[in-house]
Amino acid sequence: MAHVTAIELQSLRHLLGEETLGMAKLGTYAQNCQDPQLKSQFQKLLNECQQEGQKLLQILG
To answer: Which superkingdom (predicted)?
Structure first.
């Protein structure tokens, strides 16, 4: 991992927490949604959140 300051590390952890919360909410929405188009959108957004979360985890190393 590249050298990061304490403030940058704190920001990365905060962003990861936000992505994790987003994944939990979008997963619940997708699971409970009855409309196929809306369900598909929630799943797409969930996948995007998961990808961003993986990127943040890679940065944190």
So the answer is: Bacteria
Do the beta carbons of residue 60 and residue 20 sit within 8 Å?
A: no
Q: In this structure, is residue 41 part of a structural domain?
A: yes
CA distances from 61 to 2, 29, 46, 56 (A): 9, 30, 22, 9
Number of domains in the chain: 1
Compute the distance between CA of residue 23 and CA of residue 18 in angstroms, rounded to an integer. Answer: 9
pTM for the predicted model, two decimal places: 0.80
DSSP string of 2-60, one letter each residue: ----HHHHHHHHHHHHHHHHHHHHHHHHHHH---HHHHHHHHHHHHHHHHHHHHHHHHH
pLDDT band at 29 (very low <50, low <70, confident <90, very high): very high
